[in-house]
Design goal:
With 182 residues, this protein is of the alpha+beta class. It has helices at residues 5-21, 35-47, 57-66, 90-103, 120-127, 132-181, and strands spanning 24-29, 51-54, 81-85, 107-113, 116-118. It has 2 domains: 5-129, Ribosomal protein L10, N-terminal RNA-binding domain (Alpha-Beta Plaits); 131-182. The protein contains 6 helices and 5 strands; from the N terminus they run H-E-H-E-H-E-H-E-E-H-H.
Length: 182
């Protein structure tokens, strides 16, 4: 289907805005995937909060230039789809890697994470990491552990002090009782 110049410009503008807001961009080759597999991949990526865009290479180059995302233009050859991730680059990397294990496709050509290019092997390494929320939860647990121990020690000291005061009170009550009986 042929697009008019205005439609192409609108596509470039829309894609530029998506690229500018994406924390991670992965360039993939979807050759060998059928429509059902691409639909499944799109659903999995959408569930992870990620966008999957099949785009003509010339429009992708223009969009990358407009969005000031350099470093991946030379990999825009052949059938290309862009995976546009949010703030957490691990989620799209995991979905792509897991999907590729099942179907041997799509092939990741290159990635762009926080302005730095990463290779396909680095995308696989990225997929093996914990997600940002998981890492933050682990950090919170590590930070909370010493504080919980400190609070437990303070509680122990408080109980010891209460026990000592209770024993002192009982001792004085006993002395008063025995002192009056004599």
């Amino acid at each position: 289907m042929k697009h008019t110049k205005a439609q192409k410009q609108e596509m470039v503008t829309g894609l530029s805005a998506q690229l500018a807001g994406a924390g991670a961009v992965f360039v993939t080759d979807f050759t060998g995937l059928n429509v059902a597999q691409i639909t499944t991949l799109r659903r999995k990526l959408r569930a992870a909060g990620v966008e999957y865009v099949v785009v003509k290479n010339t429009l992708a180059r223009r969009s990358l230039t407009d969005a000031q995302r350099a470093g991946i233009e030379e990999h825009l050859a052949g059938p290309t789809a862009l995976v546009l991730g949010g703030a957490d680059p691990v989620a799209p990397a995991k979905v792509l890697t897991e999907f590729a294990k099942e179907h041997e496709k799509p092939r990741v050509k290159i990635g762009l994470v926080e302005g730095k290019t990463i290779t396909a092997d680095q995308v696989k390494q990225l997929a093996s990491l914990a997600s940002k929320p998981e890492l933050l939860a682990q950090l919170g647990g590590v930070l909370q552990s010493p504080m919980a121990g400190f609070v437990g020690a303070l509680n122990g000291l408080l109980y010891m002090m209460v026990g000592a005061l209770e024993a002192l009170k009982n001792n004085r009550v006993g002395e008063t009782t025995h002192g009056n009986a004599n």
